[in-house]
Design goal:
4-stranded antiparallel sheet, 119 residues
Length: 119
């Protein structure tokens, strides 16, 4: 069984910063891609940022230059550094990993962490 534990969300003023973390544990042989998604009220879940096991990254246009995704393969953890936050970044943020467990490649989700950007 695989568990993803997220932390780092909260309330921040516009222009502020937050750092999200997502640590994976359990019967994981290896982790391929890792990513962060978000879902705002009344909107569909969208991919915010992704990172391959080789370190290649991609971002949704709205966060380019403000957010940075990174990973620590030893700790099985993915991070999202969020700077210059805007009210439109307010959402529940979910981490996602593609991991090989019991010989199969599967996707796993974290429980979500609330990020609220407001003055």
């Amino acid at each position: 069984q695989v568990q993803l534990v997220e932390s780092g969300g909260g309330l921040v003023q516009p222009g502020g910063s937050l750092r999200l973390s997502c640590a994976a544990s359990g019967s994981i042989f290896s982790i391929n891609a890792m990513g962060w998604y978000r879902q705002a009220p009344g909107k569909q879940r969208e991919l915010v940022a992704g990172i391959t096991n080789g370190g290649r990254t991609n971002y949704v246009d709205s966060v380019k230059g403000r957010f940075t995704i990174s990973r620590d393969n030893v700790k099985k953890t993915v991070y999202l550094q969020m700077n210059s936050l805007k009210p439109e970044d307010t959402a529940v943020y979910y981490c996602n990993i593609d991991a090989i467990t019991n010989g199969r490649l599967r996707g796993y989700w974290g429980q979500g962490t609330q990020v609220t950007v407001s003055s």
